[in-house]
Design brief:
about 525 residues, alpha/beta, Serine Threonine Protein Phosphatase 5, Tetratricopeptide repeat, Rossmann fold, 4 domains, six-stranded parallel beta sheet, 10 strands, repeat, TPR-like_helical_dom_sf, Ycf3, Tetratricopeptide repeat protein
Length: about 525
């Protein structure tokens, strides 16, 4: 059946105006199927798909529209529109090309320069992005957002003084621009200028008392400083940023044993954030069970084999299992607030996890290869998608000074990055068993038979701590709040030792201190080379 394209487009437009997007899309899809290069049909379908949040389809249609026309017949507005859709579809390489075509027609257009810079950032082309933002802020010096994004990029590049100057410039242009105050506060916190950081968060909240970024960053700063009462309370704001959601009604949130005695009631405790967070805060289930609650817990699928029989629970489910009926629910990281945890009252009894006895034998060959040498597990990087990965993770090559110690070193790294794999293959002193670490239950069975674990701030450190294993944790200059400041021990894991960067980015000093500590852990029989 041949469509009357004009009539179809007219009907689609009427549906679009009336908000009947599905019907408009159906008609436009039919029109494009019959006339693949029809400009109006492609343009209309791109608009409908974008309105529906289907940016991939919208970008497809917009770029096909450009391809169907001669180069000279395309305006910079059309290039800009297609570039924005590619950007929304996370197709930043295409977006960069289209933004550059825009600039050929409209040099120094502020929105185009800004869009180009943002896609360059996402594409990892940081120096080109900075040059673009420099150009934008020079041509249009009163654009506060350009200075703000320039500050964020400068921070990524490690130019911290310039970063803060850019935020201050954005504030000078727009004094009520709360994101700049928040990011300036974070930059100051990361330099350990805590009073100044807290002042910036206060200023942001004076402008907007409901600013989630200011609330949550102030919470994490207070937790880092050991101010738990204020920190836990304000940390609850993390659920209000519009991106994080637990999916349960606020009325069913458990608010603590005083407000809602848990004895005889069913509490649904569920994971949030990372695997390490679950391993650290699952200990609060013990307190709920002691108070008489029936605890059902949901954990990440990767942890389910390890935590399936966690004591004090009546059931442990995975991420996609049906949620049973419950009286109240509570996210794992809200339990410290609900219990009113203070520095002196952290539940720190370890071990609270045990390895599956049936899995221990699978590591017999590793234990046999170690012989009488001390067995040391190593983890040098965390999740590459973590917001602070660039600061908290190392490359395996940076740990090379450790491997001349007379010990059996075993990699606990399941996710080995490409840049580490070649070096790992050339480091015979470090046994790579990544292909055998199928679940955390497998890793736990290996860790349980080691003498020591050395790890960056990742889930392996929490696993070792929860198993009661001696664990040495390598930390960046400004660590995650849970490790606090200026201490070599942890109230969360009594057998942990913390090795901190003395200045930002200085992993060499951390590794040297770890190596010296290994001498005390198992003295080297022959002098080390200088």
């Amino acid at each position: 059946m041949t469509l009357n394209i004009a009539a179809t487009l007219d009907a689609a437009h009427q549906h679009f105006v009336a908000g009947r997007l599905d019907e408009a899309r159906r008609l436009l899809e039919e029109a494009v199927a019959q006339a693949p290069d029809h400009g109006e049909a492609l343009e209309g379908l791109a608009h409908v798909a974008a309105r529906q949040g289907d940016y991939a389809r919208a970008a497809d249609c917009a770029t096909r529209l450009l391809q169907s026309r001669a180069e000279g017949a395309v305006s910079h507005e059309q290039y800009f529109w297609a570039a924005q859709l590619c950007q929304l579809a996370q197709r930043h390489g295409e977006a960069i090309d289209l933004f550059e075509r825009c600039l050929a027609r409209a040099p120094d257009h502020p929105a185009v320069l800004h869009g180009l810079a943002m896609s360059l950032v996402q594409n990892g082309e940081h120096e080109r992005a900075l040059a673009t933002l420099d150009r934008l802020s020079a041509r249009h010096p009163q654009l506060h957002e350009a200075h703000y994004n320039r500050g964020k990029l400068l921070g990524t590049l490690g130019r911290y003084d310039d970063e803060m100057a850019a935020y201050r410039r954005a504030i000078a242009i727009k004094p009520n621009f709360t994101p700049a105050y928040v990011n300036l506060g974070v930059a100051l916190r990361d330099l350990h200028r805590f009073d100044e950081a807290l002042a910036q968060f206060r200023q942001a909240l004076a402008i907007d008392p409901n600013d989630v970024g200011a609330r949550t960053n102030r919470a994490q700063t207070n937790l880092l400083l050991g101010e738990f009462e204020h920190g836990w309370r304000e940390y609850e704001w993390r659920w209000r940023d519009g991106t994080a959601t637990h999916g349960f009604p606020d009325a069913t949130l458990w608010k603590g044993p005083k407000a809602q005695p848990p004895a005889g009631r069913t509490l649904f405790v569920h994971h949030e954030q990372g695997l390490g967070d679950t391993l650290q805060f699952v200990r609060y289930v013990d307190l709920l069970a002691e108070a008489g609650a029936r605890v059902v817990m949901r954990v990440q699928d990767a942890l389910l084999p390890l935590l399936r029989d966690y004591p004090g629970t009546v059931g442990v489910i995975g991420e996609h299992d049906p949620v049973p009926a419950f009286d109240w629910h509570c996210p794992l990281l809200s339990l410290p607030f609900a219990f009113g945890t203070r520095a002196a009252g952290i539940p720190a009894k370890v071990p609270y996890l045990t390895a599956d006895a049936a899995r221990l034998a699978q590591w017999h060959d590793v234990m046999a290869a170690a012989g009488k040498r001390p067995r040391v597990g190593i983890a040098w990087s965390g999740s590459r998608t973590h917001v602070n990965d660039v600061n908290r993770s190392m490359r395996v090559a940076q740990l090379a000074p450790l491997f001349d110690a007379p010990m059996c070193f075993v990699s606990l790294q399941k996710d080995v990055r490409d840049e580490d794999r070649a070096h790992l293959a050339e480091t015979p002193a470090l046994l790579d068993v990544s292909h055998r670490l199928d679940t955390y239950a497998d890793t736990a069975a290996l860790v349980a038979q080691l003498d020591l674990v050395i790890s960056v701030d990742t889930s392996v450190a929490h696993l070792a701590g929860a198993l009661g294993k001696p664990v040495w944790i390598a930390l960046p200059f400004t660590p995650d709040w849970r490790w606090q400041l200026g201490r070599t021990d942890s109230p969360w894991y009594g057998q942990a030792r913390l090795f901190r960067q003395p200045v930002r980015g200085d992993w060499a000093s951390v590794v040297a201190n770890l190596r010296n500590a290994l001498d005390g852990f198992a003295p080297v029989s022959t002098p080390r080379e200088a």
